[in-house]
Structure formats: C-alpha cells, structure tokens
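Hello Y.,

Per our agreement to keep a running log of every chain we model this quarter, I'm adding this entry. I've kept the format consistent with earlier entries: sequence first, then predicted structure.
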Amino acid sequence: MTNDSHAGQIIILNGAPRSGKSSIARAIQDEFEGPWINLGVDGYNDMTPKCYLPGIGLRPGGERPDLEELVPFLYAALYESIAIHAGLGLNVVADLGHHDSYSQPLGILPDCARRLQGFSVLFVGVRCPIETIMQRREIKQEGRETLYARASEEMPVPEPVQRWQDEVHRPGIYDMEVDTSVLTALECAEAIRQRLDLGIPEPSAFERIAGGR
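Predicted structure for the entry above:
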C-alpha cells in the first residue's frame, strides 16, 4: 500500500485475554520515542455499540454466530485505520486477540495482513501459561470481582479460557514472541525495541500470512 520512508512503525501484539498485551502496549507508549497510538481491542470496543459487543473481542467457540457477519468488517475498518495512522507518520501499537475459531472460518487475519502490505509491521506473539492467566483472572480489580469466568474444583480452567489458549496462536506465524510469565511488560517492550533495531525478518510474518504461506 505504501513504501513511504516517512510511514510509521506498526506493532501488532497478539495473545489471549490477560496475557499482558495491554501492559506491553502501555510500556511501548511510555518508553519508545515518538507518538505511539494504541488502536487495540479495548479502545475499539469502547466505540462499538453495546448490542454488537464483544465485537472484535468475540471469543473462540462460535458462540455468537449472529455477530460473526459483522466481525470481519470491524477488523477491516480497524486495520484500515491502522494503515491511515501509519501512512501519516504515526506509530501504531495494537493489542488484539486474533483467532479463526468461529462457527465457520472467517479468514480475518490474512485479510488484515493484506491491508497492511507495504507497511513495516512487527507481529508479536504474546505467550503466557494458562496457570498464570488463571491467577491473573482471580485478582480483584479496584476492589471488585472481575466478570471473567471463574475456576472451580470441577473445572480448574473454564472452557472459554482454554479455548483462547488453544486458538489464539494459530497459525503461530510471528516475527517474535514474548512470554509475560518470564518477562515484565517493560522487559517485553525492550525486547521488541531490540527486534526493531535489528530489523524485521524478510519476509515478515504478515507478508507470509497475507500470502497464505
């Protein structure tokens, strides 16, 4: 779409809920030079009408086929916005949870990758063991319980949580991966900075995904 040397850098963080993506995004905004605009799932869902939520955050399992027709358009609009921001020289970090486990495959990630052809995109897999994610989900936030599915003796890992863990990293093609059970958000951001300094591999992960390879 563009090879403009003045275009901004794009970082896509992909992982399950509570894997630490938003904390890494904040660290990038705080620590990296220049303006970094966060165009991730939380901000986008804040703009989405309640009746269409969870929007692009629709979890794996095909539970809401009534929303699935809209989800590819929401993703397309978000990625076109990412392209516009980067084309104007703004850096973008987006924390998302891509998967293709809908009631039928929607092929959203390859479509999104094609929309960023010609841009510099670093695709980062944010890994976190299920045990750590469950611990984070149990933490009270601001003095109130979270609305997440809770563990029980009968089901130590709720099915929706396990589905995220199983599906979010398919096909697992990344430029780099970080593990937030080992690294802090700041350390993950520094690892990402070092990867950018070294240069994005060629072909990049998004180039391979866009080409179906």
